[in-house]
Each structure stands twice: as C-alpha cells, then as structure tokens.
Amino acid sequence: KLPGRRGMRSRSLGSGSTTRRQPAPLRVLLVTAVASLAAAEVRADDPRRLFADAADAVREQRLDDALALYRRAAELLPDRPEPLFNLGVVRYRRGEWWSARETFEHVLALADDHVHAEAHFNAGNCLYAEVLAEGLTREQAREKLWEAISHYKNAIHRRPKWTEPRANIELAYLLIQRLDEADSSGEDAPP
Question: What angle do CA 181, 123, 191 make, to 5 degrees?
C-alpha cells in the first residue's frame, strides 16, 4: 500500500476555530464559517452568508454548490485569502489537484504567515495527490514529491511546532525511496 499523507486545511472568514473530519483515506481539516445569520438580515452578496452556506454545502458533500459560493465570496473579497483558500480545499476534495494547487499558490500572494503556512501545506498535499493519482513517469513523480517537500518545509518554517507537515515529508521521502528502489531493481513501482 502506498503511503498516504496527512490532512487538508481550510480557513474561515474571521475565525480561528477548527473542526476535524475524517474522510477516507486522508484527514481533511475543515474550518466552519462564521455562524449563520438570520436570513432576513442577510443579502446574497454578504461574504459571511456565502461562507456559512458554502461550509454547509461542503458538510453535505454538495461540492459544486460550495465551489460556486466560494467563487462568489472571492469576487466580493479579492484581497482576502480565505475565500480562495477554501475554494482550493473544495477543488482538492473534487479531485482537481492541479487546480487546487494553483489556487493555494495564488493564496500565498495574499496570505499572512499563519494562512501562508496552511497554503503551503495544502499545496504540498495537492502535489502528493497528483503523484498518487496521475500516470506520471517516475521522474515526474519525483519532481512533484520534491516540490511537495519544499511546500511542507515552508509550512514548518512558518509554524515550527506543526507536526503534520513533518509527517508528510516522511511519507514523501518513503515514496521517493520506493521509486528509487524500483529503478534499481527494474521493477514496476508507484506512483
């Protein structure tokens, strides 16, 4: 069995709280949006309402709806990283790893250090997922794994006590080692 990787993180608008979900085979950390506001008080272009509705859509596995809601929030808040960050998480959950990674890399231009660390972590997870899912050559897989390791190291640089990126670095090294062993023996190997 191939080594998996740990976690996917998302951000809320103006909240630091987190909740954990356990979809198989990876753990996805979703941050719930700001508490729901009364419908009579909220307009459709209220970013807090969009976040709350999008978080509900993610919990209910309505990823197309969540994608549309986070896109709208990103349009309304072009200078905030949270809508794009969560858009990246939704793309990841839909299996759109390249698009999710591109979104997280865009977040890096907007984010503060804490969000920056989480964006690096998630970008690393996207690269790792690309290796496991796509028909890459061994060399392409290695390149993506080294890039994932770089993202994980950047996450650790910004949050030195964070253990999940360290665990994911170990998993990426193990997969690189398996690729190297397969090259040496001439056998088929992952990705």
Answer: 25
pLDDT per residue rounded down to tens, the chain (191 residues): 344 555 565 655 554 433 333 323 333 333 333 333 333 234 568 888 999 999 999 999 999 999 999 999 999 999 899 999 999 999 999 999 999 999 999 999 887 777 999 999 999 999 999 999 878 999 999 999 999 999 999 999 999 999 999 999 999 999 999 999 988 877 665 55
Which residues face 29 on adjacent strands?
9, 20
Position of tokens 């984010």?
111
Contact assessment for residue 39 and residue 48, using Cβ atoms and an 8 Å cutoff? no
3-state secondary structure the chain: CCCCCCCCECCCCCCCCCEEECCCCCCEEECCCCCCCCHHHCCCCCHHHHHHHHHHHHHCCCHHHHHHHHHHHHHHCCCCHHHHHHHHHHHHHCCCHHHHHHHHHHHHCCCCHHHHHHHHHHHHHHHHHHHHHCCCCHHHHHHHHHHHHHHHHHHHHHCCCCCHHHHHHHHHHHHHHHHHHHHHHCCCCCC
